[in-house]
Structure formats: C-alpha cells, structure tokens
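G., the chain you wanted modeled:
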Amino acid sequence: MKLVHKNINDKDKSGVVALVPEESEDMWHAYNLITEGDSVRASTIRKVQSESNTGSSTSSRVRTMLTISVESIDFDTQACVLRLKGRNIHENQYVKMGAYHTLDLELNRKFELSKTEWDSIALERIEVGMTIEKTADVAAVMMQEGLWLNIMLITASMSFGEDKLKTNIPRKRRGDVKQHEKALVRFYDNVMQGILRHVNFDIVKCVLLASPGFVKDKFFEYMFQTTYVTLVDSVRDNGGEVRYVTLVDSVRDNGGEVRIFSSMHVSGEQLGQLTGVAAILRFPMPELEDLSENEEEEEED
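Predicted structure as tokens:
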C-alpha cells in the first residue's frame, strides 16, 4: 500500500489519507479499513443523460471524481475490486447531491479516505498495509532447473509473488559438462540472492523450498556449501566483544558472509542454545567423537 499523503488532526483524530493499493493484499487491508459512515473520494465512471436543443436525449459514460458517504461495502476477491455504495456528498456537473453511486476501488488507483476519528487500530492497519513484508512470516521458493524461479511471501490471508526469474541452463554434453555446471551455479546463486533480497528473516519464520524432482535438494546442498557465520547479539558480553569482532572481520576478509540473529527472534534463541556461534563451511570437519578419540590416543601415547 502506497501512502500518498496523510492529514490527521492531533486533537480529535479526524482527517483524511490518500492511498494507492498496489497488491492484492492492499485491497484486503482497504476492505478492513473502510467502515460505514466514512467518506471516500475516487475517480469513477458515471452514466449521464444529456438533452439536445431538439428535445432528444442521449446517454454517455464520463469519468469524474466523486465523494460518497459509505453505506455498504463489498469485496470481490476474484476481480480484486472493492465496491463502495453510498450517497454523493459533493455535487458536481454530473452527479447531484444525495444521488446514489457505487465506487469501484481497484489496484493502482488512488483514493482518499476520510474519517471523523482515526483510531489506533485504523492507523496501525495503514502502517502494516504499507509493507507486505511486515505481515508475511512464511516465504516459499518455487524453482525448476533451467526454467524459472518464483519467490512468494505468504501472509495470513494471501500470497504474493516477490520475484520471478527465467534462465537457460545448457544441457550436459558428452565429455563437456563445465558450461552446464557453471550455469547451475549461477542459477543457484540467483536463487540465494533473491531470497536475501526479498525475505526479511527478522519476520519470516519459515522458508519453503519446492520443485519437481531433486532441484530443491540440489539447491539446499549448494546453499549449505556457501560459507557464512551467524552469531547472536545477546551472547556478546564485554569480555568477548573483541573476539567476536575479530571473528567477524576475519570471515568477511576471507570472502564469507556474516549474519547476526536477534535474541528476540526464535532463530536467535535456538542458536543461543548452541553456544551462539555457528558456521556453515565449504570443507568437511571431523566429528566431535573423532576429535575425542584422537585426544585419548595422544594421551595414551
């Protein structure tokens, strides 16, 4: 939802906001935001009758701006249109005062909403509606090798496409698979960059990977071969601050990526139970049991 302007009186909370719904989710927010008795101003089509000098009448459809006092609200989810019925409260050359009209609020069309009192819930809905990512706690990544990538954000009521990518991956040729492998790496990297660009992990709690065949499994393996270090901000006490800063700088200097998880998020809480620091490496590490056995053998020697 795009906020064009907002003018609300600090004392009695009356005022008007101008909004532009940009996504299907925005229409849902508008449906919950507008109530009976509100005034809505928007561009609309009106059928008007005109009479010529000879007495004959003709009808035509004209676009005009109307302001109505809302009496009923209907949300057509299939067409993604919000229909508001009410009486015209600002007369113009086409529509008389008090005449009934139905405004159709559509995507990417501005409308102005006036309320005698903007309560805290209505104001919060505007803030939430301005950014879908604030409400989307699940993301879905759908991919098909060599064809497409689609990243969706899923809210409590709807899902929305955030990124689409089409790419061509050459087939494996006998004796030469380098081009195929390079193209796969580029594709997987584009998937990762798309996730990082559109998924806010401070809000999103789960990312779903979906694909035909084993594409998702191959991407999952590639993702965990990419080195990055995560740490929880709450485990950085004063004595260990220098060590963590040194660790972060070292990882970045060697081309790795660092992620800091908030201790207020479930991911940070879980990581905090595992010492607060974790690394995903490009190379294998011995199991702790193997290290213990080696230490015992060295002590016996």
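The domain at 138-234 is CATH 3.30.420.60 (Nucleotidyltransferase; domain 5).

Shout if anything looks off.
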